[in-house]
Amino acid sequence: MLIIQNQTDILIIVVHEIYGLNQHMIEVCECFSQQEFDVISPNLLGRETPFHYSEENLAYVLRRLPLKSKNSLRKVNATT
Question: Domain Dienelactone hydrolase: where (predicted)?
Answer without folding.
Answer: 11-57
